[in-house]
Amino acid sequence: MRTISLNGTWxxxxxxxxxxxxxxxxxxxxxxxxxxxxxxxxxxxxxxxRAGRLEDPYGxxxxxxxxKYELYEWWYEKExxxxxxxxxxxxxxxxxxxxxxLATYWLNGEELGSSDNMLISHMFDVTGKLKQEGANRLxxxxxxxxxxxxxxxxxxxMWAMDYNWAQLWVxxxxxxxxxxxxxxxxxxxxxxxxxxxxxRETEIKEPYFYTRSADDKGAWIxxxxxxxxxPLLLGELTLRIVGTCGTSRFEKCCxxxxxxxxxxxxxxxxxxxxxxxxxxxxxxxVRMELRHRDDVLAExxxxxxxxxxxxxxxxxxxxxxxxxxxxxxxxVPIFCKGSNWVPADMFHSKDKAxxxxxxxxxxxxxxxxxxxxxxxVYEDHDFFDRCDREGFLVWQDFxxxxxxxxxxxxxxxxxxxxxxxxxxxxxxxxxxALWCGDNEIDQxxxxxxxxxxxxxxxxxxxxxxxxxxxxxRPYLPSSPYLSPGFWEKKDLSLLPEEHLWGPRDYYKSKYYxxxxxxxxxxxxxxxxxxxxxIKRFIDADHLWPWQDNEQWAIHASDPIGTKGTWGYRIGLxxxxxxxxxxxxxxxxxxFALASQISQAEAKKFFVEMTRLKKWRRTGIIWWNMIDGxxxxxxxxxxxxxxxxxxxxxxxxxxxxxxxxxDEPSDWHVRVVLSNDTLEEKRGTYRVWDADSxxxxxxxxxxxAVNGNIELGRIRISHSDQRMLLIRWTVDGQTYGNHYLLGFxxxxxxxxxxxxxxxxxxxxxxxxxxxxxxxx
Length: 775
Description:
Layout: E1 2-5, E2 8-16, H1 17-20, E3 36-40, H2 44-50, E4 72-80, E5 89-96, E6 99-100, E7 102-107, E8 110-115, E9 122-125, E10 136-143, H3 145-150, E11 159-160, E12 189-190, E13 194-200, E14 203-204, E15 208-214, E16 218-228, E17 237-245, E18 248-256, E19 260-268, E20 284-292, E21 295-304, E22 309-313, E23 325-329, E24 332-334, E25 336-341, H4 351-364, E26 369-372, H5 381-390, E27 393-397, E28 403-404, H6 409-426, E29 432-436, H7 441-447, H8 456-469, E30 475-476, H9 484-489, E31 497-500, H10 510-513, E32 519-523, H11 531-537, H12 550-554, H13 569-581, H14 588-611, E33 619-622, H15 645-653, E34 657-661, E35 668-675, E36 682-689, E37 695-702, E38 708-715, E39 722-730, E40 733-741, H16 748-758, H17 767-773
Parallel strand pairs: 25-26, 25-33, 26-27, 27-29, 29-30, 31-32, 32-33
Antiparallel strand pairs: 1-13, 2-3, 2-4, 4-10, 5-9, 5-13, 6-12, 7-8, 7-10, 11-28, 14-16, 15-16, 16-19, 17-18, 17-20, 20-21, 22-23, 23-24, 34-35, 35-38, 36-37, 36-39, 39-40
């Protein structure tokens, strides 16, 4: 197959849908709306901004200017030449990889069909429909998703957050209707590539590779294949499969008796794919050839990682009957440390440019798991290819979040089609560890008093698709999953996997420290961006004070402002500052610094409280790495890629080998060495007082393998407010951590002094520099 890109400059027309009367592209020539240049991939708001029809919606309160365009319809127009035919060409498809959202398509005035899902690709067979001479004219009409949603019926079993009811019927990234982490931006556009796909008469269609069993000595792997070929040749064809990864190589040939088949074979001494920290993320290049005697009729190259992945989980957990929530790769327990992946941008045509830098942050943080949250889009192959190479396990939510969706046959069919497309597209990536039915829908069912087991989407439709199309990968119905065993007692302490949001109070409160969960897949704490970043998205006359500040609330993110559902989050951030320091600073610079310290200490503690209880606790995926638009949030990197203090603190406690200090008990604190690798590590460590320089504990160590050991104990007083500094050296490298001893309120001025001890590894230009400048 070869592809011809139709990306680039198109014409775009927009007008209020209820006034347009436009039903066919010929009407565009008869006094229709004025066109403007559009970029594809793109979003209509970005095109209007380039044309001077819209101000930058990322700053101030200008995001509100997008509201009127929710009721618009948009027409895209493109002329293109028919590709010159080549010998062996077969059918031609017109492929739209991302259309937002309700579309009708015309080619040379003939309607091709329609689509109603932003989240998957749409293909149209145009064989014989392209002009032999002259240019082809392509039109796409995008209709208002809000008007579409308003024409639907809503049952008592359905529910959504205040601004998000339109998400229930429209298959569009849910965050676009407004969320607590993203603005309301009900966009439209051709947001991914558009291309012509010219197929060959003889092809190997996309195969499915899988691993049945694997260890260092050998692996049983398989491939499901399909071919397009002359049926008269069946029985005379051979499929040759050759895989290479470094010094490892396998080869298998099998006769092709039918257009589809399955072949399984053993690979001796394979190079296994491992998550980051546990080994190399080995990826095989697999070449397939369809041969007729000595002639190669078709060929293709794919990638594949040899590994098994399991999710060992129980339906409930308790002190009396401890449960489990544990990932195993190649039979080895994996302690997971990572972050949630949220929308890369509010306009998804910008995702492709941002994603590489975003994944750089996950690599720099030494994450070994990424959870792709269900309120956004499904990421493309470039995202998963990078995760494959980096050794990131990917927890993939289906794009369903925080709402009770329609329980109708029509909607089940929509989800079934979407899931089948996505699963078949992504299933060959070794990084893909888990399909999860949705984000928090079980929890919202509980809140409404509805048994989550009645949700046929997560209990029947999605698991059926996964078991049909990707049977060697685990499936979890919801996150967190409320099992029938839970529903009998309705006690949240029984959940083995949990989203720990709760009261968002002091980060060492009992809500966090006494949770019985094994795996926390969401947990967060607020932190201001740096002042220079705030000045980029808050207008000068709204920079201060934070109280009753509409622009701060809009960037909290609330579509209405201080009186909206999420306007409280700025006050929450101030309360978290007051919790740690006893007061809220009255200057923007000190407010931002105190907020970043509060966030950094909290998130570091969340990771440590999980690692210190390894293997009773088995992983943490905190919320979240980076913002998808400029805002005050839980992210540790702001929209402009400027790192908050929490990034450094988290980086310290994400090391494969980490020395940490546990909470006081019996007038002592434990010093613990955690090793998240399969190798024994030897080195030295030291713990000392930041103020006096007094050595408190030091010596050599020999680590456990994939486990924890106690290095010693330090005598403390419960009235102390001290910072203890930690250093350890292993394999010729020195790393650092610290421990904040004592109870709030701490002195902000004293903490600024402690920051100087950590400054050697602070990011340049960060809030750390503000701390120095205020001394």
